[in-house]
Amino acid sequence: QVQFAESGGGLVQPGGSLRLSCAASGSMFSIYAMGWYRQAPGNQRELVARITSAGSTYYADSVKGRFTISRDNAKNTMYLQMNSLKPEDTAVYYCNKHPFPYSGTWGQGTQVTVAS
């Protein structure tokens, strides 16, 4: 079963940038549609961005124009470039297949905190 490990989070000032990485185990990564999700305290987990195996992308309205999702299938890795960060982007960010499979499990995620 494929597993995912998120990294790259941290503390950044409003207007700053971060690049998140998602490393996938296994050999089937390239065929999966993948998503970046986030969960802020007291909120439900939400989809931030999605990329298909062919590279087609989708962004939530709240991040459109600021975030860029990409993938490198040769490295079994997906990325989320986050620019012009806002305090409301503060959350734990997770990566996983999209749509999230019924039998799927979440990794530990990576904390992103946007504060001055």
Secondary structure layout plus pairing:
Blueprint: E1 4-7, E2 10-12, E3 18-24, E4 34-39, E5 46-51, E6 57-59, E7 67-72, E8 77-82, E9 91-97, E10 110-114
Which tags fit this structure?
single chain; 116 residues; mainly beta; six-stranded mixed beta sheet; four-stranded antiparallel beta sheet; 46% strand; globular
Compact summary:
With 116 residues, the chain is mainly β.
Spans of at least 5 consecutive residues with low confidence? none
Calculate the terminal CA-CA distance, rounded to whole Å.
40 Å
Strand line-up of the largest beta sheet: 2-10-9-4-5-6
Query: What is the strand tally?
Result: 10
How large is the share of residues in beta strands? over 45%
Question: What's the SSE pattern?
Answer: EEEEEEEEEE
- Which sheet architecture does the biggest sheet show? 6 strands, mixed
The level of helicity is under 10%
Mean pLDDT level: 95
Describe this structure in words.
This protein is an all-beta fold. It is built from no helices and ten strands. The strands form two sheets. It has a six-stranded mixed β-sheet, with no helix packed on it. Strand 5 (46-51) and strand 6 (57-59) form a beta hairpin.
